[in-house]
Specification:
about 180 residues, mainly alpha, two-stranded antiparallel sheet, 9 helices, globular, EF_hand_dom
Amino acid sequence: MEYLKSKWRIWFRSLDGDHDNKITNEDMNMSAKKFEEIRKLIGDKGPSGSEFDNTNWWNNYIFRKGPGVAMTMDEFVGALEDYYQKDKAAFRQEMERCFGDISAFVTDNMDRPIQEQEFAFGFKVFGQEDAGQVSKAYQLFTAAHGQPTVRHIVDAWVQFIVDDDENKQDMIKEAFGN
């Protein structure tokens, strides 16, 4: 369990955009601005008419004490732990929806290749701005999959959040350098 909790702490830090050790509506608003930047970057490559409801995403998957209710790292990790231990299969399904919802904003083609610039920007949205670390992560994806696709990225995020086998390579964990 400690391995998963260490990854959930990484995820928390990636969501805590203002680095005040709690996730709040301010972090959600910072996230919304980053998603607008993604929309500009992907332009015509994204699905037509696709809008990402950032508030809904945060309320469904991040704010685990209720819509918009701020959480400390311990509260966030504890809520994930409770749900994971209650029903691992349901937890996995929720995380598949969580990251699937983001991917649907980017493309309706899960097999669409992701270029390195998009990859780097996507990690920036989740708080990883160390270009060297992101480049290393992109190389891990290309070594494993050739040209990474949206599906590869989504699957890697789901693995990062739900997989408790620390012997498996975890590309998202490596991307964050922790």
